[in-house]
Each structure stands twice: as structure tokens, then as C-alpha cells.
Amino acid sequence: MAFTDANVPEQKGKVFIVTGGNSGVGYALVNFLYSTGAIVYMASRSKEKAEKAIAEIEAATPAPKLPGIIKFLKLDLNDLLSVKAAAAEFAKQETKVDVLFNNAGIGARNVGPGAKTVQGLDVMFGVHCVATLLFTINLLPQLRAASTGGNSARVVWTSSFLAEGASPNNGIELKCLDSGYPDLDKNYAMSKVGAWMIGREFAKRYGEDGIISVTQNPGGLKTGAYAGLSSTASFFVNLLLSEPKFGAYTNLYAGFSGDITLENNGAYVIPWGRLRDNKNCPRKDIIKAMTDEDKGGLGYPRKLWEYCEAKWAESGV
């Protein structure tokens, strides 16, 4: 293992947000960050579940040598109004955020075909792209505040191995953004390609502010992402999956490794904490789709970003 919690030094005085932090990878990540002495916001839909998770982490033995502070932040990515409210509430409490871990998501089979968000968006694109970008944009003042004095705040976006394994040609079918793709796995995969593309576009737009944007594939993990499979399928799938803490290791690498700088802003991280450049990506069609049109690509990141902005405007946020 190249990068684990043992590689993360003391973070006292730092502020982190982990979306979807009450279970799975997010829970493991909050647990690791708590041991660094930092202030960690567990951004989740359910206050009850979050407070239970926080109590478990704080009561665990042996206690860390330098315990931090974990705070609950109500965030429902299924509702854009909740997203704006969460960012506003955070701004009341903190002036900066050093690393934003955009971990929260919905498993491919956790919803049925045609599922919609509160604002009527396809639930996969609505949560993984439109809402997650809105939350991040509304935290720009705090991200910029952390990117001073030679420091760089980071935004960590979450993709998936299915982004390359199950998505259609070019990674996304733009005509399906509103309706969603009828195949559940492909629809999930497209939204995770979308998160990757948004991570690239964010780096291009805000790198000059000193903010690092990095996308990570946390790996195949024993989390809720595979809920909905039959018991037989679940048994065999679980044989191939790793514990959530390994996905947290990938996030820690993305959030703290010195390998990632403003020089390679927009980087892509694969399990369990390794950089992968474009030439080693097996999906050359996705790389072409992510490339700017004036460089021979399809310019999908900009188009997807503008799609998100249009949906915010339509929703009045």
C-alpha cells in the first residue's frame, strides 16, 4: 500500500468536508481525518444517521492521540435548495475549507429507471453532477480563502471503474442528460464520467485561484453501490470487492499526496492511490470527448458544465 492514513500528517487547524460521510467510504474517510486533529464536516441527509456515526467514531478505542472535531452538516444532493442551504450554513461557521471530498452518491441499482430529483432532474446526473457542482461552486469563497500563502485547497471528485467499463461511446450521450439512460448501469456510469469531466473543467476554470481539482476512482468496494443485486449475484460480487477503507485510502491520496499539484491540476487517481495519465486510459473515446474542441476534441466538459448552469437557472438557485 503506497498511501494510507499513516502518510497523512497532523492537520490541526485544517477544515475538511466529506459528503456522504455517515457510511461506507465516507465514514472511513471521516474516521481517518478525525485522527489528524482537523475539523471535519460530515455532510449527510440524515441528522440521526450522521450523529450516530459521529458518536461511534468518537467513542472508538483506542482513542487517537490527536482527536479532531466532527460536525454534522445537513446536505441532500437530491434537492438543489438543500444544497444551497448547506453551503450557506457552512459559511456561517467557517471561513475556509482546505479539502472538499465530494464522496456522496447513489448506487447504480439503488433507484429505478426514470427516477428524478426534487427539481425533476435525472437522479444520477442530478446528484453526481448538477448538485455536486452547485455545492462546490457555492463553497468557492472558502476554497479561495484556503488557497493563500502558498497553500492550495483541493476538491476531490468521485468517479467509478464503471465510468470506463459501462459507459457508452464518448462516455456520455448528451441527449440523455434530461431523461437518463434506460440501462441502470450505463446511466450510473455516464454520471460518473460526468463527475470526471466536471473535475477537469473545474481545474481549468479555478486553477488560477490556486485550487486543485482531482478526480478519483475509489475502486470496487463493499458499499451500498451494489444494493439491488440478487443474493446470488451479491455473493459472487463481494468476493471481488474490498473494504471501504481502501476507497478512503484512494481519497486520502487525492486529498493530500504531494504528487498532485497545480502543475497537473485535473489529475485522475486510480485505486488505491496512483496517478494515471491520459495515454494510459483504455477509453480513448472518453479522453477525446474531454479534450477541448479547438484541440481536436469534443469539448464535453464545457458542455456538461453549461448544462448544469442551465439547470440551476431553471430551478431558481
Rg, rounded, reads: 18 Å
CATH class: Alpha Beta
Binned strand content? 5-15%
CATH superfamily, please? NAD(P)-binding Rossmann-like Domain
State the share of residues found in helices, binned by percent: 40-55%
How far do the termini sit from each other? 43 Å
- Strands, count: 8
Which tags fit this structure?
single chain; 317 residues; Rossmann fold; eight-stranded mixed β-sheet; 8 strands; 41% helix
Architecture overview:
There is one protein chain. With 317 residues, the chain is α/β, with parallel strands linked by helices. The chain has one domain: 3-Layer(aba) Sandwich (Rossmann fold), CATH 3.40.50. Helix content is 41%, strand content 12%. It is built from eleven helices and eight strands. It has helices at 24-34, 47-59, 80-93, 123-137, 140-146, 162-165, 184-206, 231-238, 244-256, 284-290, 300-315, and strands at 15-19, 39-44, 69-74, 99-102, 154-158, 212-216, 268-270, 274-276. It has an eight-stranded mixed β-sheet, with helices on both faces. Helix 4 (123-137) runs parallel beside helix 7. Mean pLDDT is 94; it is low at 232-237.
